[in-house]
Prior knowledge:
Elements: E1 30-34, H1 38-45, E2 48-53, E3 58-62, E4 66-70, E5 76-81, E6 87-92, E7 98-103, E8 107-112, E9 118-122, E10 129-132, E11 143-147, E12 150-156, E13 162-169, E14 176-180, E15 183-187, E16 191-196, E17 201-207, E18 221-226, E19 229-234, E20 237-245, E21 257-266, E22 270-277, E23 280-286, H2 296-300, E24 303-309, E25 314-321, E26 336-340, E27 345-350, E28 353-359, H3 362-371, H4 375-384, H5 394-408, H6 411-422, H7 426-438, H8 442-446, H9 458-471, H10 473-482, H11 490-501, H12 508-520, H13 524-534, H14 539-546, H15 556-562, H16 564-573, H17 580-586, H18 591-604, H19 613-623, H20 628-634, H21 640-649, H22 653-662, H23 666-677, H24 680-690, H25 693-703, H26 707-716, H27 723-729, H28 739-779, E29 808-812, E30 817-819, H29 835-839, E31 847-852
Helix pairs in contact: 3-4, 4-5, 5-6, 9-10, 9-11, 10-12, 11-12, 12-13, 13-14, 15-16, 16-18, 18-19, 19-21, 20-22, 21-22, 22-23, 23-24, 23-25
CHCR repeats: 568-712
Family: Belongs to the VPS41 family.
Protein name: Vacuolar protein sorting-associated protein 41 homolog
Amino acid sequence: MSEVEEKGRKSSEESTDDSEEEESEEEPKLKYERLTNGVTEILLKDAASCMTVHDKFLALGTHFGKVYLLDVQGNVTQKFEISSVKINQISLDESGEHVGICSEDGKVQVVGLYTREGFHENFDCPIKVVALHPQFSKSNNKQFVTGGNKLLLYERNWLSRWKTCILHEGEGTITNIKWRANLIAWSNNVGVKIYDISTKQRITNVLRDNSSLRPDMYPCSLCWKDNATLIIGWGSSVKICAVKERDPTEMRDLPSRYVEIVSAFETEFFISGLAPLADQLVTLYYVKETSEHMDEEFRARPRLDIIQPLAENCEEISSDALTVRSFQDNECRDYRLEHSEGESLFYIISPKDIVVAKERDQDDHIDWLLDKKKYEEALMAAEISFKNIKRHDVQKIGMAYINHLVERGDYDTAARKCQKVLGKNMELWENEVYRFKTIGQLKAISQYLPRGDLRLRPAIYEMILHEFLKTDYEGFATLVREWPGELYNNMTIVQAVNDHLKKDSTNSTLLTTLAELYTYDQRYDRALEIYLRLRHKDVYQLIHKHNLFSSIEDKIVLLMDFDKEKAVDMLLDNEDKISTDRVVEELKDRPELLHIYLHKLFKRDHHKGQRYHERQISLYAEYDRPNLLPFLRDSTHCPLEKALEICQQRNFVEETVFLLSRMGNCRQALQMIMEELADVDKAIEFAKEQDDAELWEDLISYSIDKPPFITGLLNNIGTHVDPILLIHRIKEGMEIPNLRDSLVKILQDYNLQILLREGCKKILVSDSLSLLQKMHRTQMKGVRVDEENICESCHTTILPSDTAQPFSVVVFHCRHMFHRECQPSGAIPGVQFCNICSAKKRGPGSGILEMKK
């Protein structure tokens, strides 16, 4: 809950704070200020009795019978001397051109503020309320109502005379009237009634709930939310009434409209005024003393609450206790609440004070957040609404946030916020850098310094680099990697690093950073030396990026020692820059590295390094025997005699067998397989590859006294050699492992071959029959003969020019045509063949058609 504190009386201006917060984190919804200037002087000598609000001006009535027109700042623009007693009510039409006034002595006046027309009447009883037609300025709407002990409607006819009509009487004094569009709502001692001026019908009567309260002490508050929604506050009861159109089928003798109460609830205190705020309600409460234990001052202060109406109760949104002048002397009837629909302004009127309540804007919201030290939320709110805020600046709020974070010791967050808050203001950036240096927190701000289009002076970056170089080598290296080299003087930093290396020459972090600085400075040779010394992974990237191949010709061994795979790939990818001969020359004293290089070269292209294939034989034999045999198979340039000599010296059987077979000495190769390897499967495989009958004979001869070899032969030679030849040569009584299984396999293989042959035969017969049928269908088709065809023998037109003469033509299936007389007689009587196709060996074609005429 908040208070409006009295600041004191001043002749020029008097105001209150926006609402002083209690120890609560809940932000108030409204802000308050006193209406001062001319109002201050009026209320010093007089007391406010009523006030009406228009979007353009205010109309204030006093207890001494005066009416003042005020601007929204409270300055008096016009004054009317109406009576010597209390002004009870002032009414304005929507245009603000006419004003209706009634007073306690029975006077009623309706005057035009900009015209001379008017109405003056004196009644013999007090007139409590007056209400002009909302469109009173229009000639056809010259109507107003007054309320005393009866409700009177005044209407000017076409003769400019006023006629009077009693709308209601007999239920006590009329205490309040509100006119909206065609509906007039009024309250008396019994309840609230609504009259439809268009149909001249009274459409409802809403009884008051607490009849024990005196109507003159606790008057009814009425307020139209819109043209069809009336809000009634009486005592501690609130009702929201909706005016609805009645279904024509239900009318009969009933009014065309009816009222439905959509919400009704009780409040904690007595209601002095109501006003709508969107779908919520602003309520002015008179706080009645209910307990002797409650603080007396607080009890008497009026409250302005915002509530959310529900069907049977309400939810409090905000509540403010207002310290208005002389609140201790006021009763419920002394307070009024008026509102300006256009600007959501709420005027709390009391006899000695007028307070204006406004919805808090974004500037007020930011003020509250800053007061609560919620700087981050304030900054976010300012950024979102930067076009709407008037009293605040986003950057100033951001600076306040940074200062707050620094005071709290949260340097990392403060530095991070600098990026957003300082933007492109170089002066602010440099000030912040020096401030962080003063408090010893340059490291915190270093990673957020601008390094794009906006750049600070080089001295700023150098200062930070020197700071890191003194205390944090890793942080220094990170900044050098992340910051572009043009941010600072590179030579200055290089010199500083060299000075530190004099004290610690083996520090890898400093050496790596120095290499990067040399790279920025395009001194690549110096950087390469350091990378190779450190065996740094970026050495290959540096070579590629800056084309340093001429600088590494004498450093190939170092590169290979560092990373053989990357080095070889780099050398092979750039053979045009570093030749194979140069690499081989550099690696001649390191045969294991030479082998790796030549092996990858051979994998890429079998012919490129052919001059080194002879050397590679011994390299493979020494360092990589598993790849020797594939090399011998793929290479067409290595000398076989030299390779055979090396393999025999090292007793490489498989390689020797391959070389012997390659050189044509298959029998010796087979002998080595059988004697050295004793591997019958490999021997059989070798014999299959060579497909030589003599080799099979040698294999059988060698295996005939070795039962395991015989088993292997029986299982595998069935498709190459007749198994009977082997079986006949097996000695009687020799025990052969798995002989039964081997013989069964031979028979199964034989049966499979027979089945395959029969299947192939069936397929061939079926295909032959199909092709024969196709040929027959083709030969049965007719052949077109016309004047364009010629005889293949005499080369004249096949048809005579005079087709009436008898002629004879022979046409073959090959489409060759002859005159009968040009066709030689066939060797076989009755059978004719095309001489042309027979001569070309395309197969004789038989005559398919003989035409005669």
